[in-house]
Design a protein that fits this description.
The protein is of the alpha/beta class. About 30% of the residues lie in helices and about 30% in strands. Strands 1, 4, 5, 6, 7, 8, 9, 10 and 11 form a nine-stranded mixed sheet that branches. Strand 12 and strand 13 form a beta hairpin. It is globular and about 65 Å long. It binds 1-O-pyrophosphono-5-O-phosphono-alpha-D-ribofuranose (PRP) and uracil. The site of 1-O-pyrophosphono-5-O-phosphono-alpha-D-ribofuranose has 23 residues, from strand 4, strand 6, strand 9, helix 4 and helix 6.
Length: about 210
């Protein structure tokens, strides 16, 4: 599949095995999510552009490479918040915007309740994060909102995706690169990813 990248590094796979386990505690779940988000950001950022700038070391002037563009992390609330710390540890200069969406439990369609972005959204690289790509409704809606706010370069990063969701996002926004830790089998009749990891927001925040 074009523009879909499964980051199957052994450390990512190992930590994902802990996250999937229903007996994993809230604390360990969040710790593993932070670590996976950092590992994924490291992989994804290898394609980021750099520019040469001059600085002065304690010894002499010298040309160094720095990131060319602002990086804006945009979590889809709530579960996307669980990936922000791990990425910020690696890219502390990143700004953070927010999109608030929840899935209507009957229709599975996303409902928007919040959107706020830094001004750099129009010129920077947007790293849109949400651990779960299920029907794809939330991700398509979040990308629509970002594009309406002027975002031009959007990359999506998540943990687990279903084929149905990937298809829907690619039909709506084919240019958006999709990075996942795993591609799962399917959705069940309640719209949950199989085998998945359950309700990610609830597992991050201990709400169930
Ligand atoms: C979950 C998840 C995604 C969405 C994915 O959020 O974090 O945002 O579902 O499903 P979709 O691909 O079918 O749209 P949820 O709506 O449960 O809200 P929460 O993060 O606040 O728990
Ligand atoms: N949202 C979740 O948190 N988990 C799923 O499996 C699907 C949507």
């Amino acid at each position: 599949m074009e523009n879909v990248f499964i980051l199957s590094h052994p450390l990512i796979k190992h930590k994902l095995s802990i996250i999937r386990d229903k007996n994993t505690s809230t604390k360990q779940f969040k710790e593993c999510l932070d670590e996976i988000a950092g590992l994924m950001a490291y992989e994804i950022s290898k394609d980021f552009d750099t520019v040469v700038t001059e600085i002065e070391t304690p010894i002499c002037k010298c040309n160094v490479d720095v990131l060319a563009k602002d990086i804006i992390i945009v979590p889809i609330l709530r579960a996307g918040l669980g990936m922000v710390d791990g990425i910020r540890n690696l890219i502390p200069t990143a700004k953070v915007g927010h999109v608030g969406l929840y899935r209507d439990e009957e229709t599975l369609e996303p409902q928007t309740y919040y959107a706020k972005f830094p001004k750099e959204i129009t010129t920077g690289t947007v790293l849109l994060v949400d651990p779960m790509l299920a029907t794809g409704g939330s991700l398509v809606a979040a990308i629509d909102i970002l594009k309406n706010a002027g975002a031009k370069e959007i990359i999506y990063t998540g943990l687990v995706g279903a084929p149905e969701g990937i298809k829907r996002v690619q039909e709506a926004h084919p240019e958006v690169k999709i990075f996942l830790a795993a591609l799962d089998e399917k959705l069940n009749d309640k719209g949950y990813i199989v085998p998945g990891l359950g309700d990610c927001g609830d597992r991050i925040f201990g709400t169930k």
